[in-house]
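Project channel, design review

CF: Before we commit to the Stutzerimonas zhaodongensis constructs, I'd like one complete example in the thread so the newer folks can see what an input/output pair looks like. Taking Flagellar hook-basal body complex protein FliE.
RD: sounds good, go ahead.
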Amino acid sequence: MSSIMQVQQDLLGRMQQLQGVAANPVIKPADEASPDAGGLFMSAMRSVDTQQHQASAAMAAVDSGKSDDLVGAMIDSQKASVSFSALLQVRNKLTTAFDDVMRMPL
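CF: and here is what came back for Flagellar hook-basal body complex protein FliE:
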């Protein structure tokens, strides 16, 4: 009898666990899931823009002779380039995901 009661308790526990999972929606509406998702992307864009302006200022300083840190200017330029490329890849992935969702049959 003990093993039957143990099985019943296990099943009851699983049922309660599944009931809790079913009560919480897996897919949340966009306003609940991440209220500041657009702000995160805008923040990333501003960060990349800032890096590009810093790289441009460093290159201008080297070109005008105000600075002799050519290596630092080139590193800043490469950092800005990599950041921009990464931002474009994220944008492309988001666009592809949105297109895939829009093509899904209902």
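RD: helpful, thanks. The radius of gyration is 26 Å.
CF: The CA atoms of residues 29 and 35 lie 10 Å apart.
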